[in-house]
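Example record

One chain of 119 residues, shown exactly as stored in the release files.
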Amino acid sequence: MTSNIINEITLNCLVNKFKLEKLIIKRHNNDVVQNDAQIFKKELIQLFNDLLDDNSPEDILPCVKNSFNYYIEQCVCYLKIQNSYHEVDDSSSVQTNKNDNNECDDEDCGDDFNYDDNY
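Predicted structure tokens for this chain:
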């Protein structure tokens, strides 16, 4: 048996049917999003660059602008954390000062973004 068949049997037997349906829908939606991303790849890159340069189209949806701003905030937070892990001070130890300007606060890096507010 392949691992896909075993995983399918396991999911069907051990997972609540309601949760299984949600998982199947989520998988399908992820596939659709990935397919759409490939179709609109050039346009997405152009829109991303425009938003990054603060040259957003006049007719852009507020939810797109808000989501982009949230995405950028989280990426910067991630990069600051990565930078602090890779930064080495004079004694060759990793910096761990949480108040360093090269790090974001933990509360800035969370799942506090409410998608419902932006649609």
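Notes: The CA atoms of residues 74 and 83 lie 14 Å apart.
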